[in-house]
Amino acid sequence: MARRSVPGVLAEPGGGINMISKMPRPKRETSLTFRGDNWGMRRGEIDASIPVNQRLATRFIFVRQAGEAWQQFAWSNRSVYYGALSFKVTENTRYTASAEYFDYLASPPSPRSTVASTSPLNAFTWHGNGDINGLTLNGVYIPWDFSPLGPNNRRDEQIFRFANQVQHRFNDLLSLRVAANFSRVHRSDLRLSGTQITTKVVNGLTVPGSDAL
Fold first, then answer.
1. For residues 146 and 133, what is the distance between their CA atoms, to the nearest angstrom?
2. Which of 157, 22, 190, 188 lies closest to 99 in space, CA to CA?
3. For residues 112 and 125, is the Cβ–Cβ distance under 8 A?
4. Do 198 and 206 contact (CB within 8 A), yes or no?
5. For the ranges 12-16, 55-59, 130-134, 178-182, which has the lowest average pLDDT?
């Protein structure tokens, strides 16, 4: 991605993250990166810095990431487009700007706490996480990668961000930076309502049904 992040992560991060946008570099260079994991996640990235002259430099990045996760029915497709420019106004004054667009379509991993206490799988919660994988609880066998929401879980998200700043350096000890940012997010989540898990018998064991909700 255009920002420092952990590759291959399917779930949304929580807490605070210190993100630093990649800026144009003073020399022409291009890198091509491919990554993958054991769950089928594949990620490709093209990163090109193109200085125009001694005052103006640009940088362009394209990222494509797609694949499945450890949980049943969980997958994600993500595309990132990023561009930045840096212009040297004077010897001590520089203007920089960046724009990025995220296109994200996924079936995120389902939280196990969505199962109601009235369900046959009432022990299938975050607090019982270490007790359920591959064990039989309340007469129901719980696979370690079971998804409570089944295939009925979809997230569609688009994010646009624009940032620019002017920085002036007065001396070795003092500089001034003025910045302005804009962002827009559109996200839609599709899930079926209700919390009753369906079950079926396979080889003498009661297991969760394919349609979890």
1. 9
2. 22
3. yes
4. no
5. 130-134
CB 102 within 8 A of CB 78: yes
Among 155, 165, 182, 160, smallest CA distance to 93 is for 165
pLDDT tens column, 67-97: 988 888 889 999 999 999 999 999 999 999 9
Nearest to 44 by CA among 54, 56, 36: 36
In the numeric block, which tokens belong to residue 169? 């350096």
Tokens at 28, concatenated: 């022409």
Lookup: tokens for 53 = 């002259």
pLDDT tens for residues 111-160? 654 444 445 454 444 444 444 444 555 556 667 777 766 777 788 999 99
Instruction: Report the candidate in 52, 61, 63 with the shortest Cα–Cα distance to residue 84.
Output: 61
37 contacts 9 by C-beta, under 8 angstroms: no
Structure tokens at 85: 């420019």
Torsion of CA 7, 11, 17, 23, to 10 degrees: 40
